[in-house]
Amino acid sequence: xxxxxxxxxxxxxxxxxxxxxxxxxxxxxxxxxxxxxxxxxxxxxxxxxxxxxxxxxxxxxxxxxxxxxxxxxxxxxxxxxxxxxxxxxxxxxxxxxxxxxxxxxxxxxxxxxxxxxxxxxxxxxxxxxxxxxxxxxxxxxxxxxxxxxxxxxxxxxxxxxxxxxxxxxxxxxxxxxxxxxxxxxxxxxxxxxxxxxxxxxxxxxxxxxxxxxxxxxxxxxxxxxxxxxxxxxxxxxxxxxxxxxxxxxxxxxxxxxxxxxxxxxxxxxxxxxxxxxxxxxxxxxxxxxxxxxxxxxxxxxxxxxxxxxxxxxxxxxxxxxxxxxxxxxxxxxxxxxxxxx
Length: 341
Description:
The chain is of the alpha/beta class. The protein has 16 helices and five strands. The chain has three domains: 19-112, Methyltransferase, Methionine Synthase (B12-binding Domains), Chain A, domain 1 (Orthogonal Bundle), CATH 1.10.1240; 126-251, Rossmann fold; 267-336, Winged helix-like DNA-binding domain superfamily/Winged helix DNA-binding domain (Arc Repressor Mutant, subunit A, Orthogonal Bundle), CATH 1.10.10. α13 crosses α15 (308-322). The model is unreliable at 23-31, 252-258 and 263-275 (pLDDT under 50).
């Protein structure tokens, strides 16, 4: 009988211990959520005041409190941006205020670059991240790019409103193992970009993200990411997966096929180059046309969504292929060879 009572007492003690543990966990979660909400409200207040220093101070405070950097993105900054967007929707703040809030946030996110770092920079596979044509909102894509860079991936972030042709050219040139496309308000551009990549590159895997991604694409072979947390696992899974099969809806793009045929007909430069004994890549031809138009390195870089360093490398390769020593000589030699009109 004594042993029975002892066993019951011990069992009740274990139940009480489990209940106490669960209670402490609930309290801890509640305190964490409350603190996140407090910091999020302060961040939103900083945006309403248009004060970048105050917004950065909120992020710095969260870092000092050892809030994980991905949580600062998704549990503090992102909800604050949602609240700010609601203020814009009801007319409390203006479009100018919204643009300022975006610029402030992009500045604040730079404070998380080091806290996000868990691996050596560019020590893993290459990943390209871009917002599709017509998409001006890039904060979510920036968060994803920063998380991936912190995990060691070699990230190329192209930014907002990347034309489909420029995106395809970047994928062809950089050969990323994974391409991330962001869309909050341009689903047609997203579909066009996916179709173009499927037509031109079988090597890159594609992940999509943003509130503007339609349901039929979210259910496709392209994984959809709604927030930056967890994106590393998604990318790692893609790297180990077989080639993606594009949804049937993406294969029915006769307009794009017609445009591609038109470009090939209208731009016979590569064939003329081969006949002239000079082989230039499509990207080098674009740079060469920019030189012929008298554009600077920076102007060409902006138009082609490249860095000035990449453009200078292309120019050096063009000079070498043409056997000349200056940009002017390159334009003259290209004209003589029929590479440019």
